[in-house]
Write a structure and sequence with these properties.
2 domains, 17 strands, alpha+beta, seven-stranded mixed beta sheet, Beta-lactamase, 13 helices, eight-stranded antiparallel beta sheet, about 30% helix
Length: about 475
C-alpha cells in the first residue's frame, strides 16, 4: 500500500509539473515560438523560400505524418520541393489557428535548450485566379531546439487530419477583398513588443497571388519613419528639438515672411507649422503660412519636406543615407525605400485600384519625399513598429516627449511627435496611430505602449471600409474600440 501511495503521489507531481510547464501566451518564449511558426510556414511552406526552409531545419529532422508516413530531413525537404513547391497546379497553403497554440519549454540543468509547440493548422489549395479552397484541418506537435541561439525545427508530428468542419470554405478576408474590389491585404501583428505574424492575402493585380514579401506603397506611413529618424538625430546631438531651421533652409516662397524663423523640428513633427497639406492644393500654388507657427494643429506634408531639406543641408547627407544608417540597416528593413530605385522589385509590387476595381496607372517616383510614397513590406514595417513600441533606443526623456500631448485635436485625441495619440481605450490603454491614404492606397499602423501590442494594415484599393470593419471588429486587439472611434 505504501509503494502504491508513493507511486500515485509521483504521478500527481508529474502531472502538476506538466500543467505548470505550459508558458503563458504573453511570455517571451510563447511569442518567440509563435513568430517562428508564422515565419517558418509562411516563408518556407506557403511562399516556398527553400533556402529559408532548409536553414531552419536541424540535420536530424524527424517528420511523422499520420497519412504519409515517416520522413527524415532529406526526404522532407525533397517532398516539399517536389509536391509543395513544384510551381505547377494548385499550391497547398498552411495557416495556423492562433488560439490553439501552446508552448512547453525544455530544460537541461536549468538551461533552456528547446521547446514543444502544439496547435491546429488548416490546409488550403491555392490556384491562380480563384479563391483558396479549404481542404483539411490537422493537429501538430513541433519540437524546436536552440542551435547557436537560432531556433530550428527538430521533430514534427502531423496527425488527426480531418475534412473541413465548416461547409463555407472560402476565407472571409479573401471573399471581402473580392467583394470590395481591393486586390490585396497585408497584415502584421505585434504582441508584447514582437512581430509575431505576417500575412498577405489576395493578389498583386487581380491575377497574381500576392506573396509574403509583397511591396506596398504606404503613402503617409512615410511620416513616422522620418519622425523617428529625426528623433534619432536629436538623441545623438546632431540636431536639437527646438532648433530654428532657417539656418539651413528657407523656402523661396517664405523669404519675405519672418515667421519662417519660428519653424523647429518640434513644431513640424507636431503639425503646427501653419502650412497647408500641400501648396499645390491652394489657389495660389505657393507655400504660405495660414496661421502663426506653433499656435495650433494643421496636418501638413509640406512641413515634413521642409524638415527634410533643412536636415540634409545641415548634415550634408540625404534622407535615404540617414535612414539606411539609423533605421533600415540596423532593423533589417531590406525591402524599404523612398523611391523606385534600382533595387525595387516591381514583380512584387501591389498595384493600386480604385473603388470600381480598375487599376490605377503606376506613378513611379525617382526622388525622396519625407511625407509620402514610401515602398515597403509588412514585415519591414512591422519591424519598425515593434522597434517604436519598445522605445526605439531613444533616451527615456525623448521617448516620453514623443508620447506627450503636444496639441489636442479632439476629446481623447492628441498629436505627439510624429504620431496621433488616441486615449480612452479600456484598461487605460492608449495608442500611437498613423494612417496613409492615396488613390488606391489605404494603410494604418497602430501600437499600444502599455501592452506593447499593435498591428499594421496595408490595402491597395479605395473601397476599404468593409475590410477594415471585419478585421478590426473581429480579429485585432482593441480593434472594435478603434473602429468605433472613426
Amino acid at each position: 500500500m505504501k509503494i502504491q501511495s508513493l507511486f500515485i503521489a509521483f504521478l500527481l507531481l508529474l502531472n502538476t509539473s506538466i500543467v505548470l510547464a505550459q508558458v503563458s501566451t504573453d511570455s517571451e518564449l510563447f511569442i518567440t515560438l509563435k513568430t517562428q511558426d508564422s515565419l517558418f510556414f509562411e516563408r518556407g511552406f506557403n511562399q516556398c523560400d527553400l533556402v529559408f526552409l532548409e536553414s531552419h531545419l536541424t540535420e536530424d529532422l524527424k517528420f511523422y505524418h499520420d497519412q504519409s508516413g515517416f520522413q527524415d530531413r532529406e526526404a522532407f525537404f525533397e517532398n516539399t520541393r517536389k509536391y509543395i513547391c513544384s510551381g505547377s497546379g494548385a499550391k497547398p497553403i498552411r495557416t495556423v489557428d492562433p488560439t490553439s497554440l501552446a508552448v512547453f519549454p525544455l530544460y537541461d540543468e536549468g538551461e533552456i535548450y528547446g521547446a514543444i509547440q502544439t496547435g491546429v493548422h488548416h490546409f488550403y489549395l491555392r490556384e491562380q485566379g480563384v479563391e483558396d479552397v479549404w481542404t483539411s484541418t490537422a493537429k501538430f506537435t513541433h519540437v524546436w531546439v536552440l542551435d547557436n541561439e537560432a531556433w530550428k525545427l527538430s521533430e514534427v508530428l502531423s496527425y488527426d487530419h480531418q475534412p473541413p468542419t465548416n461547409e463555407q470554405s472560402l476565407n472571409t478576408i479573401e471573399q471581402l477583398l473580392v467583394e470590395s474590389n481591393v486586390p490585396a491585404l497585408g497584415l502584421g501583428i505585434i504582441e508584447n513588443g514582437q512581430l509575431t505574424k505576417v500575412e498577405v492575402y489576395g493578389t498583386l493585380d487581380g491575377k497574381r497571388t500576392a506573396p509574403y514579401n509583397t511591396i506596398f506603397k504606404v503613402a503617409s506611413l512615410t511620416k513616422p519613419i522620418v519622425a523617428l529618424l529625426t528623433l534619432k538625430l536629436i538623441d545623438e546631438g546632431l540636431l536639437e528639438l527646438d532648433e530654428p531651421l532657417y539656418k539651413y533652409w528657407v523656402d523661396p516662397d517664405l523669404v519675405d515672411d519672418a515667421r519662417h524663423k519660428l519653424l523647429t523640428p518640434e513644431i513640424i513633427l507636431s503639425h503646427q507649422t501653419g502650412f497647408p497639406n500641400w501648396r499645390y492644393m491652394t489657389e495660389a500654388n505657393v507655400l504660405a503660412f495660414q496661421f502663426d507657427p506653433g499656435t495650433r494643429y494643421q496636418y501638413s506634408g509640406e512641413g515634413f519636406e521642409y524638415l527634410r531639406k533643412a536636415i540634409e543641408n545641415k548634415l550634408g547627407k540625404s534622407m535615404e543615407e540617414l535612414a539606411e544608417e539609423k533605421l533600415f540597416g540596423p532593423l533589417g528593413m531590406n525591402d524599404t525605400r523612398f523611391w523606385w530605385d534600382a533595387g525595387m522589385d516591381e514583380s512584387r509590387y501591389a498595384y493600386n485600384f480604385n473603388e470600381n476595381g480598375e487599376m490605377i496607372e503606376v506613378d513611379k517616383y525617382y526622388e525622396a519625399n519625407a511625407a509620402a510614397n514610401l515602398l515597403t513590406t509588412v514585415e519591414d514595417y512591422g519591424k519598425f513598429a515593434a522597434y517604436v513600441v519598445n522605445g526605439a533606443d531613444l533616451s527615456d526623456t525623448l521617448f516620453q516627449n514623443m508620447l506627450a500631448h503636444h496639441v489636442q485635436l479632439r476629446e481623447n485625441d492628441f498629436f505627439g511627435l510624429g504620431w496621433e495619440i488616441l486615449t480612452g481605450f479600456p484598461n487605460d490603454e492608449y495608442a500611437l496611430l498613423h494612417t496613409g491614404k492615396d488613390p488606391g492606397v489605404s494603410t494604418l499602423v497602430i501600437v499600444f505602449p502599455h501592452s506593447k501590442n499593435g498591428y499594421i494594415i496595408f490595402l491597395n484599393g479605395d473601397h476599404t471600409d468593409p475590410v477594415y470593419e471585419e478585421i478590426l471588429t473581429h480579429q485585432l486587439y482593441l480593434g472594435e474600440a478603434l473602429w468605433n472611434k472613426r
